[in-house]
Design goal:
There is one protein chain. The protein contains 10 helices and no strands. It has 311 residues and is mostly helical. It has a single domain, classed as Alpha/alpha barrel (Mitochondrial carrier fold), CATH 1.50.40. Helix 1 crosses helix 3, helix 6 runs antiparallel to helix 8 and helix 8 packs across helix 10.
């Protein structure tokens, strides 16, 4: 990021208190603050946006007239609880992946800065690159196996069979640990591309909004919370719109409807045409806007609070 850009969850400045803190402890505290901020933000985000995620997943797997008809079908069959099928793996996943994502982004950024690289020369490219790395790490360390469990449970929503349980034991017994990584390649592609776009858009839009409003970000080291909310949400929405085809393929592979990305694409084109790759977009874009608006805003506040404490 540019040194003149307003600070956001991509760069939250510490507020000095005058105490001398050993560098090692300070670095450790910063890493912990990003991890904690991501965990809190991910859990809160899940509680608010999971119904839209369930609708999005069902629209990936079956044809509906729209998100409203999909939601109505789920509620008719399973009640409002159907919109929260898979909540437990989802909240664990969302909290953990956000923690890993923000912590990894900060670690990669500090590593690049420590190597003497001047990111201000091309801030957008660096935000994109660091976001890609953070998203890839998030997917492989945490998201792929938990997403597999979430998708299997959400696939049962609207079927009138009750919330599916026991998938973990069944997968481990029948397929071993590798069964949890079905669709890992598509998950990694989705996360890396979406996180890269989120951080890049956040960076540029935050700077543009602060510049337009004449906000002196250098005064307190942070952009206003509403700017982070709008910029973070926009980044989430743009990322969702751009990589929805990957998400459709991922959902179908992880639910067991397709064995590979190639087979999935061939089946979708044959049965539903190119429009199949836009399935769930009307639910996914608003969900990712709200989701990332919440996450970036909460992380910024938590990190700022903890860094003041440990500075």
């Amino acid at each position: 990021m540019s040194s003149s850009a307003p600070s956001t969850p991509a760069r939250v400045a510490s507020t000095a208190t005058g105490r001398m803190v050993p560098p090692a402890r300070k670095a450790s505290a910063k890493g912990l603050s990003w991890f904690a901020g991501g965990a809190v933000a991910g859990a809160l985000d899940t509680c608010v946006t999971m119904p839209l995620d369930t609708v999005k997943t069902k629209m990936h797997l079956k044809q509906y007239a729209g998100p409203l008809s999909c939601a109505q079908a789920i509620v008719r069959a399973d009640g409002a609880a159907g919109l929260y099928y898979g909540f437990r793996p989802f909240v664990i996943q969302a909290s953990g992946k956000a923690a890993v994502r923000f912590c990894m982004f900060d670690a990669l950024r500090r590593a690049v800065d420590g190597a003497g690289v001047d990111r201000s020369a091309n801030p957008a490219a660096w935000s994109l690159t660091l976001g890609f790395g953070a998203g890839m790490a998030e997917a492989l360390f945490w998201t792929a196996p938990t997403e597999r469990l979430k998708i299997l449970r959400q696939a049962k929503a609207g079927e009138g069979v009750g919330g599916a349980v026991g998938e973990l034991s069944v997968i481990l017994r029948e397929q071993g640990v590798r069964g949890l990584y079905v669709g890992a390649g598509a998950t990694a592609a989705r996360q890396a591309s979406s996180v890269a776009v989120r951080f890049s858009v956040l960076d540029r839009l935050s700077a543009a909004l602060c510049g337009l409003l004449g906000h002196d970000a250098a005064r307190d080291g942070r952009a206003p919370a509403w700017v982070t909310f709008v910029a973070g949400g926009t980044g989430g929405a743009v990322g969702a719109a751009l990589n929805n085809p990957i998400d459709v393929v991922k959902s179908r592979i992880q639910s067991g409807q397709s064995a590979s990305a190639v087979e999935c694409c061939q089946t979708l084109l044959r049965e539903r045409g190119p429009a199949a790759f836009a399935a769930g977009l009307s639910a996914r874009v608003p969900r990712l806007f709200v989701s990332q608006a919440i996450q970036f805003t909460v992380v910024a506040q938590v990190v700022a609070l903890l860094e003041r404490k440990f500075s």
